[in-house]
Amino acid sequence: MKKITLFILLLATFNSYAQNASMIKSEIFKDSKKNSSLEYSLEDENGGLVTIRAFYGGVIQILKGYYIQHFDSKLKLLNEIEYEVENNKIKNAFIKDNQLHLIEYVNDKKTDKVLFNAVSVDLKSLKFSTKEILSLTQENLGFDVFPFIITNLYQYDSNHAGEVVMSSGNNYFVINFDINNKDKETHKIFVFNNNFEKIYEQLIEKNIEDKYFDYESIDIDDTNGTLYFLGKSYENESRRSKKKGETNYHFELYKVDASGQTNTSFKNADKFISSLELIKSKDKLSCIGFYGQKGEGRINGVSLFNLNPETLKMEKEKHTPFSQEFLHDKYGNKESKKKRKKEKGIKNIDFKSVYIMDNGDVIVNAEEFYITTVSYSKSEGGGTRFVYHFDDIISLRLDNDGNLKWARNINKRQTGFDNSSYTSIPVGEDSYFFINCSDNIKKLSADRISFRQTKAKKSNLYMIRINQNGDFDFKKLIDDKESKVYYKVNNGTININNQTVILEGKRKKYTRILKLEI
C-alpha cells in the first residue's frame, strides 16, 4: 500500500501543472480508402483549416491521390474533393489571397520531362487552375527520368525528383535537384516567389565525386529569397568517418542569390557529427546536430555552429555534453552505466526537429529509434520480419551561445507505425509533446516514470510539457473509451505562429480531424 501511495503522489507531482489545450474536433467521416496520411494542414485568413491527406491503394499501397478538405473555424466541413494522381505528386502547399496553392511535380513519360506546376484552388468552389512553372529534360538534369513509387510504408522522395522547401513565411520557395554527376557533386536550384515568378536559378558544383558528398539541409531567407545550402564533404577519397583518429570530413555552407554564390567550410577534428540541420531565423544562421566523442554511431551531446548570415563567418562553435539530469532521466541510479554512457555515448538517437525561440534559444528534439528483426515459423513456412522501435523522447534547450539550459529524457517504449512516436511544438517558453500511450504508466527506479504503449484502438492521447526550467509534467487529453478513433501523432502538423497542432484520427476508413490550440 505504501508503494502504491508513493506512486500516486509521484504521478500527482508530474501531473499537477500541465497547461490546458483547447480541442476542436470535426465530425467523423468515412473515406473511400482505408489508408491515409496527413501531409499538410493550412489555416486560412478566416480561421478555417485546409487539410491535405494522401491516400493509398493496391497490394503494396501505392499513392493514389489526396483528400483535400476545407473546414471552418469550428471544423465544420465546408467543401472537399478527391485529387487523384498517377505520375504526379504534391511537393508543397500554401494559402495566399484565400486560395490554396499546390506545388506539383509531374513525371511526363510521353516527353521524358520533369514538370512543376502551380495548381491554384479557389477555397469556396474548389475549382482548379494549373500553370506550368518549370520544365526540365533529361539533358537539363543529367539523369534518366524514372517513375516513382510512393507508399504509406516507405515514402520514396528522392532529391532527384525535386525537393521543394518553403521559406518560414511562405514568401519564397526553392526547387532543389541533386544532379547525378559521378565526376562532380552538382545541385541545380530554382528559387521562386509566392506569385510563382522565378527569381533566380543557380548551379552549385563541387569538384569532388558525387559519392563523397552528402547533401544535408537547405533553408531560405523569407525577406529576400537568399538561399543557404549545407553539405558534408568526405576527405581523402574515402567515405570513412575517421582517419588516424580524426574526422575524415568537413561541412560546407553555401550562400546563394541572384548575383552568385559564396561558401565556407568548417570541421572539428575530434567531434564526430553524423549530420547537421540548417536553420535561418531573423539575423541568425545556425547549424545544429548531435556529436560523438569516439565516432558517429554513439552520441555524447549536441553541437551548435552560429554563423553570420551575410559573411558566413563563424561566430560561435559549441559542443555541449549531455547533462547529469539527462543521464539520470534515462538510467536512474545506475552510476556505472551513466559513467559508461557518458564516455562512450548513446546509440540510436534520431534527430527530429529544431526550433529557434524568440530570445535566440534553441530547442532540439530527437527520439530513440532502431530496427530489430524477429524470426517466425508457421505451418506453411517461416521468415523474418522487421520491428520498428520508437522509444525515449530526447529534448534539449540551448541558449544563443550554445550553453545547455536543460536536457531531458522522457522514457517511453513503442513499436510499429500506427500509434508510435510524437508530434511536438514550442509555445512561449514551453515545449509540448503529444503521444499515444496506455493509462498504465510504469514507475521506474529513482522516481522516474515510463509511458507504455497499448493497441492503437485503445490509445489515449497525452500531452507532455517541458517548461523553461526543464521541469516536465503531463496530462491526458483524450481517453480511448471516449473516442471512436485514435490519433496519428507520428504525422501531425503544426502551425507555430498560431500555436496549433493538427492530428488525423483514424479507425479503418473512418477519420476525424483534431485541432489543438495551446
Write the layout of secondary structure elements.
Layout: H1 2-15, E1 22-25, E2 29-30, E3 36-43, E4 49-57, E5 62-71, E6 77-84, E7 88-96, E8 99-108, E9 113-122, E10 128-137, H2 138-141, E11 163-166, E12 172-179, E13 185-193, E14 198-206, E15 213-220, E16 227-234, E17 242-243, E18 246-247, E19 249-257, E20 260-266, E21 272-273, E22 277-281, E23 284-292, E24 301-307, E25 314-321, H3 324-331, H4 335-344, E26 349-356, E27 362-378, E28 381-398, E29 404-413, E30 423-427, E31 430-437, E32 442-444, E33 448-452, E34 460-466, E35 472-478, E36 486-487, E37 493-495, E38 500-507, E39 510-517
Helix pairs in contact: 3-4
Description:
With about 525 residues, the protein is mainly β. It has a domain at about 1-30 and about 360-395 and about 410-518. It contains four helices and 39 strands. Strands 1, 2, 36, 37, 38 and 39 form a six-stranded antiparallel sheet that branches. The model is unreliable at about 1-15 and about 145-160 (pLDDT under 50).
Pick out its properties.
518 residues, mainly beta, 4 helices
Distance between the termini: 37 Å
Range of helix content:
under 10%
Our estimate of the beta-strand percent is over 45%
Number of strands: 39
Quote the average pLDDT: 89
- Overall spatial form: globular
Based on helices, strands and strand pairing, what is the structural class?
mainly beta
| Radius of gyration, taken over Cα atoms and rounded to an integer in Å | 24 Å
Poorly predicted tracts of residues: 1-14, 144-159
Largest sheet: 6 strands, antiparallel
Q: How many alpha or pi helices?
A: 4
